[in-house]
Amino acid sequence: MRRFMIEREIPEVGTLERDQLRGAAAKSNEALAQLAPHIQWVESFVAGDRTFCVYLARDEDVIQKHAEISGFPASRVVEIPKKIDPTTAA
pTM here? Predict the structure, then answer.
């Protein structure tokens, strides 16, 4: 599967409490279950009015389908063909 970064514009998402984030994750997981095995959620970062989510997916179409089912917008989707981290320097 290919790796993607998804930027989701969600007003005030950074102010959500833990229980609200738990509910959002559960909703996302329900959509993922419907689309399995073609998509996998790796992790997300919450900042202000946005989330930045890393997903593994067959293609961008399945990411858009997840956004449609879950109700969480995929405002911007970027494929990540390469990765760099501190071990790259070794």
Answer: 0.92
Tokens standing for residue 90: 């070794």
Q: What is the Cα–Cα distance from 13 to 15, expressed in whole angstroms? A: 5
The tally of domains found in the chain comes to 1
User: For residue 90, is it within any domain?
Assistant: no
Q: For residue 16, what are the domain limits?
A: 2-83
CA angle 35, 36, 37 (to 5 degrees): 135
What pLDDT, on the 0 to 100 scale, is given for residue 69? 97
Mean pLDDT, each 10-residue run in order, the chain (90 residues): 98 95 96 98 97 98 98 97 95
CA 17/CA 33 separation, integer angstroms: 24
